[in-house]
């Protein structure tokens, strides 16, 4: 990569935004100019990038002028308002919100799984939901060898999934409980410290919450097949950062756990964590801050002749959000796809 | 119940032991005499029962003389040492350990599911594992209407499952983390505060831990069928008390979620907690201290034509242990089964 790019981060002050900034620096993404955009109330603050204090600007039409790449992580409504503006001004938008993920004209990309989908972008590329990304990275290498028929997923999602304020709230609640006071829930609907509850995203008519339907629909789109049947139970747990998932897989034919282990031990983005002797498997505290999805406890499912069980943990803010977005940006740069769209998407 | 009974609690100072004491009082079990037995280091302490301070004695052969009922909750090795002695002295033992659960001559009883199994006891009745009890109470009423073929369970198990010391350790760890210090793990193998990990019980050759195999084997025994195929992923989470479980059920034929809801709304030991409008379902903090297993989020499984998803929380120390044991004692008293065994079991 010899070219360098004018980059804007939309939502620079959030949990994912600050991680985007850190990753652009750490991974040495070729940045020639960097704009930090956030809401009005953050204007005046600065954030560090490569030793320099950069000012935070508010979002406006003009902010997207002379920008090649927008990394957006400011929520669905902000993306819906500004993505088209940025594209019109000639930028490519990698969007971390759910606004465009299921739009058939917009690629939904996990670089380890479907990098080819990015090639046909029309200015916007969607970054999948965090739980979906983590599951996709772990399941795809197996699915390539023998097709997965059905997935039963149960998640253990950290407070980071609800943002920096939720992470702070869990700590405040824990302090209160330890001091004998009642915990106060303002960001999340119920106290999460020393408690847990089904994911509080809106429920559909079938009783599935949005988070669960993201795992179903986005996985099918990323894998490029409607044939995989998926069900999920998404649960918020009092962990600060890094999500965990118990994944039950049914294949079309038998799949030995030994073979799965060999495959996953060399799969991109996966780190096998399995010490059977000391009962040591992936844990959120060990996944925090790491790039890889930690996968382990690969077991033959004793309840199904073609079944496998596996357990994973991944940093929700990193591979579950910011890292995947930066990897998409790297992929675009690598394939010379960071150029103004010539055909526009209908959003 | 007009008769009253001479009762001994073995392991009276533990998390389950103190709950047994409380439940005998609360439920007004007909106690004529109560002995509190614990390890040597607790001798000299007292515990309250109906306003009276009762001394704690150490365990010995003589301690089981003139006792009708032993409620044992002092771990497998203690039960293996003392249950036969108690039975020989004429007591009936309701044992909360895993020592005798899979012995084919010993009934394994959840009173809402298989009370009839208690009738043929030979001096010892086993109380099932906590996660198993909670699942059995919720699944049995459905299984009665249409047989369950397969269960995929994922658990969210609180610190109470590892005893009072683990509960205290999680609090100490949380304090340390909130103050910026490193958490220390002594009772459990890894820090549990703001973290989670697969259940640390010993693993078998298939990679299933003991806790998971209890859910498999004990459920089959309690339900009286080997035909139900079960797989489980058991996980410890930083909740103080009350376990949660995500349960995926496959039936022989379609089972509507509406019908399941009607059935569970009037099933013994079950409390339906489902407010779809406010996204309110069972939570550990609401299950804590309650007798019922809270069940909700009953959904048609979109990945399987005969599938149902459900979510439950139950107090691990109460219905998951002490309450179930006291209910067995009540059942025995009610059926006039609290009498010296005439045939002995081989243990």
Automatic annotation (TrEMBL), chains A, B:
Q: Name one GO molecular function term.
A: NAD binding
Which Gene3D superfamilies does this UniProt record tie to the protein?
Answer: Dihydrodipicolinate Reductase, domain 2, NAD(P)-binding Rossmann-like Domain
- Catalysed reaction equations from the record: L-aspartate 4-semialdehyde + phosphate + NADP(+) = 4-phospho-L-aspartate + NADPH + H(+)
Q: Is Amino-acid biosynthesis one of the keywords?
A: yes
Question: What EC identifiers does the entry list?
Answer: 1.2.1.11
Q: Spell out the catalytic residues.
A: 130 (acyl-thioester intermediate), 243 (proton acceptor)
Q: Which UniProt keywords apply?
A: Amino-acid biosynthesis, Diaminopimelate biosynthesis, Lysine biosynthesis, Methionine biosynthesis, NADP, Oxidoreductase, Threonine biosynthesis
- Residues annotated as transmembrane: none
Listed binding positions for NADP(+) are 13-16, 41-42, 160-161, 316
| Official protein name in the record | Aspartate-semialdehyde dehydrogenase
Lineage summary: Bacteria, Bacillati, Cyanobacteriota, Cyanophyceae, Nostocales
């Amino acid at each position: 990569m010899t070219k360098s790019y004018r980059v804007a981060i939309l939502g620079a002050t959030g949990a994912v935004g600050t991680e985007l900034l850190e990753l652009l620096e750490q991974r040495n993404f070729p940045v020639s100019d960097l704009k930090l955009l956030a809401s009005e109330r953050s204007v005046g603050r600065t954030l560090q990038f490569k030793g320099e204090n950069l000012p935070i600007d508010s979002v406006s039409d003009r902010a997207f002028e002379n920008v090649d790449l927008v990394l957006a992580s400011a929520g669905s409504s902000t993306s819906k308002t500004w993505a088209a503006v940025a594209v019109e001004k000639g930028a490519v938008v990698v969007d971390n919100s759910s606004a465009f993920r299921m739009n058939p004209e917009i690629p939904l990309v996990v670089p380890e799984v479907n990098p080819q989908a990015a090639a046909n972008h029309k200015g916007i590329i969607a970054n999948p939901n965090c739980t979906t990304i983590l599951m996709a990275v772990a399941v795809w290498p197996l699915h390539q060898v023998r097709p997965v028929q059905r997935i039963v997923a149960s998640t253990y999602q950290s407070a980071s999934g609800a943002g920096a304020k939720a992470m702070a709230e869990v700590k405040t609640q824990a302090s209160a409980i330890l001091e004998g006071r009642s915990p106060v829930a303002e960001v999340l609907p119920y106290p999460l410290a020393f408690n847990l509850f089904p994911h509080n995203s809106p429920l559909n008519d079938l009783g599935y919450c949005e988070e669960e339907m993201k795992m179903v629909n986005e996985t099918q789109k990323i894998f490029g097949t409607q044939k995989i049947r998926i069900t999920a139970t998404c649960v918020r747990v009092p962990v600060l950062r890094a999500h965990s998932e118990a994944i039950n897989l049914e294949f079309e034919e038998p799949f030995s756990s030994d073979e799965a282990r060999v495959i996953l031990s060399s799969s991109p983005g996966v780190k096998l964590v399995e010490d059977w002797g000391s009962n040591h498997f992936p844990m959120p505290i060990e996944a925090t801050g790491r790039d890889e999805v930690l996968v382990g406890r690969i077991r033959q499912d004793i309840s199904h002749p073609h079944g496998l069980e596996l357990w994973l943990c991944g940093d929700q803010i990193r591979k579950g959000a910011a890292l995947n977005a930066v990897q998409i940006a790297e992929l675009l740069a690598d394939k010379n796809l960071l150029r103004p769209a010539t055909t526009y998407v209908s959003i």
